[in-house]
Amino acid sequence: MCSVQEHSTDHTSGAFYGAISSTRAQNPKMPVSNIEFMYESAPVAGCAGSCCSDCASSPSDVSTMRKVMYDLYLAGASGAWYWCDSAWDIITLGTSKGYQYCSILSKFLSSVKHLVEMEPHDELLTVDKQGVEYIGHVLALRGVEYVIHVRSVDSGFSISITDATTPLTGLWFDPVTGNSSTLVSSLANGTHQFTAPKGFAADDIVLHLYQPTIVPGDVH
Fold first, then answer.
1. pLDDT in tens, 82-94
2. pLDDT digits (tens, 9 = 90+) for 88-127
3. Of 13, 37, 105, 189, which one's alpha carbon is 20 to 30 angstroms from that of 165?
């Protein structure tokens, strides 16, 4: 595999996604993982920085870390989550919000049947509002399965579906709680507009589209 130790002071405008995309382009046949990015503060080892120095010390910073993690996976790579105490050989009892988010993400990804075959396809996505808080990404096996992540729930977006031999179904997924809700309509080829459902805890949202023959895992 190709391991990347990528840090950045820019966590909102897609710097991590861009760095992973560039690395994958240079190593097209090799799995890529960002093995170190953004630390989450912990009681013993602590974390003196803030989000701007690549260290998450507040709940809002940890939420940003969650979004960066989704950026890594939707760029076709993976990432290693750091909690300061466990990252530096100090094992303490405690709860890491980031680890909770990782558990939710892991369960979700286990329900994505064609994950290994899927590739980034941001050209299929249009987010209605503009600005760094409305960044969106798409991982897809076109016509078969799509994972869409948008950094805001208050912006609509559209996704273009082609090559689908049967209409797709889908689920909305909350990255904070792991809760989901079923997409009511089925989707044939064409461009489809979406608005996130109300009541989700996250300020980002995931939409998972797939063929009806795909049975997602227990997370749904």
1. 888 887 777 777 7
2. 777 777 778 888 999 999 999 999 999 999 999 999 999 9
3. 105
CB of 66 closer than 8 Å to CB of 37: no
Per DSSP, the three-state class of 58 is: coil
Q: Per the structure block, which two tokens stand in for 146? A: 């799509």
Residue 53 pLDDT more than 70? Answer: no
The whole-number pLDDT of residue 219 equals 45
State the Cα torsion 117-120-122-127 to the nearest 10°: 80
The token pair at 97 is 């919000």
Q: Shortest CA distance to 190 belongs to which of 143, 155, 150, 148? A: 143
Give every CB contact of residue 29 below 8 A, 6+ residues apart in sequence.
Answer: none
What pLDDT shows up at residue 44?
78
- Please give the order of strands across the beta sheet that includes 157-161: 125-127, 157-161, 190-194
Cβ–Cβ under 8 Å, residues 79 and 8: no
Listed residue (118, 209, 204) closest to 160, CA to CA: 209
Domains along the chain with CATH numbers? 2-110 (no CATH), 115-210 (2.60.40)
Beta carbons of 195 and 159 less than 8 angstroms apart? no
